[in-house]
Amino acid sequence: MAQKSFRKSQLVAFNNVAAGHDGVLSDRSGAVFVKPCSQAEIDFYQSTAAHPHFAPYIPKFIGTLMLNSNPQAAAALMRCHAVPISEAPNAIAHAPIGGKAWTPSNGAKITTDLAIAMENVVASFNKPNILDVKLGARLWDDDAPPAKRAKLDKVSEETTSKPLGYRIAGMRTWQGFAANDDTGNGLPADGYTIKDGYRLYDKFYGRQFSADTVCHGFEDFFLLERGAVARGPLRKVINRFLEDLEGLKIVLEREESRMYSSSLLFVYEGDKDALKEAFVAEKEDDKTPLNSSDGVETHEESDGDEEEGKPAVQALKLIDFAHAEWTPGQGKDENLLHGLVNVIQMLEGLVG
Description:
single chain
């Protein structure tokens, strides 16, 4: 299994994000996603080794590194493929904790040199359409100061977070390069801006919806007319998301945890031709003959969940675990599940 080392100078800005803080990076190949984070989030990722049924629903953990000018620290070895947590090389250091009062970040880069390296979920897509849905009516953990609790409660009350347990936190959809002219060379229009052929929807787009109108956000993500039911390839994509969501729901109902301000990350292929090719590739895989060994027929084992370079149809992951922990004896996470169930109901409505 190949290994790579990275220095900060070898990392580049990562632009395929729909929401979250600034400062996200990737390696030059695009296979590795590097996110500034807290020690708590790293601890949670490492703890998922003890929860094997949950692990497939989050990005694969690769390792950690320091984003500072120290070449020895920044060149921490990281594997290019998922490895057992005990084998993942580390260069972990706690971020300094100050005594300053809490102030909202408003999406600014986190002040830390500590970063986590994960699989880049969108790497297998040509033109990924990306949706970030933040889960939970309560968005703060037990350690949150009163000012933060009050701010996040206000956001929850004024958006779909309170009644539905989720809200759209950000989105980007591929429209084609001709769409760059739609808004006067990138000026805001109808809640989005245009850049490099994508419609970009920020966090304020999702905050405008009520429980009755949030369906419009999902229609925009799946490029559906108002009130339309998905047909053809998009219907297949949505049904796959539903299968993944139902699987995640079953796992979370069996776990005892609390995950505040975590998000569902939806990704599907936005290039129509590439999406068709991805479906065709899957059919070809289904036709692959079985290998016989001692009279027992088995499929060839692959080195990972997907062959390298294989086009992807869609992906669903639960992300953002800065305020997540396992809570034995406290039961399932009703706050998270409330939003998850309502997202499932929303997608079910899109397929009729």
